[in-house]
Fold:
Amino acid sequence: MTYLLGLRMDGRDVLVVGGGRVAQRRVPVLLEAGARVTLVSPEVTTALADLAASGRITWHRRAFESGDVNGGRLADFWLVHVATDAPEVNAAVAEEAEAARVWCVRADDRHASTAWTPASGTAAGATVGVVANGDPRRAAGLRDAITEGLADGTLDARRGRERLRGVALVGGGPGDPGLITVRGRQLLAQADVVVVDRLAPTSLLDQLPGDVEIIDAAKIPYGRSMAQDEINRILVEHAREGRFVVRLKGGDSFLFGRGGEEAAACAAAGVPVIVVPGVTSAFAAPASTGIPVTHRGVSQDVHVVSAHVAPGDPRSTVDWAALAQSEGTVVALMGVERVADIADTLIGHGRAPETPVALVQDATLPTQSTVVATLATIARVAEEAGVRSPAVIVIGEVVNVARDLDILHEGRNGSAPWTGTPDSPQR
Structure:
């Protein structure tokens, strides 16, 4: 039988004996809890050596010696973790800890340990620890099931908690609901009101309790849309009425998502704001189809631009001439309808007509498809393929890198195959 406790380790000394994989897992958790960690081991992993070099832990580069625990020459320890490859060393450390009345976690023999490290996790403002009679695999499985249930709301994360107040601006990621961040999923599960965009991972809404109010704030290109001032008003109004409001968007709210405007409106009204960054489609869309936006020896810079207005439009602040002279990658969002203007402008300012281009449509979704061509041919190829919004434009030699690495193949990520290549636009 065990007696469970939550140890408050802030400012307390912990001894870790052994510098291998087990120590590498446990030391960061101890540091997060505020413990002062002393590590004794002749050799350590690279990650642990980096922690020592940065001064975050104290490393004694030697084997364990009698007196390290109860001699008081290193520190007055509150807890000992031992995880060497030598059972006799582990036993000696545990014996010395027992004599000093210091709790000892022995990684190689749970039955010989005076303490067990639970499988722990955090979700929805709760920390979960599972012991499972010292069985680490079962404990980890139960931990995962509980934290996932708290995160997605199936364990009713809103019940029994202190109610959140204000507005959370949550970036939902590029499309696949599995790519929303853990923090975003947790806050969504606690929402009273969700103000949602059309490109957000809307399938997550079906998992919310029935009393959560869903407000459609979709903005359809050249179609029906809710004005930004009205969205701001809704966020502030519901928050002032004591509800916790989640503004759920696709991608990242602060990259062409007007999240800054919404945060400013809430701040001006005295409404607390939580900002949860999201995985932006500017990088996720190319990655999902195998294109690295930067690649050593090919592209050391990447430029993300909004193409919601065409080059040459007085409202555009993009320096297309400078982009044409750059050898870096250009990622353009909201530009499918203007891809011909973009290509012509870049060529006109000196970018090579044979520069490869990819259009990634419905990135990370089962309907994902990709069209590749060159600046000279992309407008025709995109029109023939029927490319529509939402799609991300990727311009640069990194498109060829992906082809050369042979990671542009049919069915990748469950998506439709590529259409065309820079060398042969039609296939």
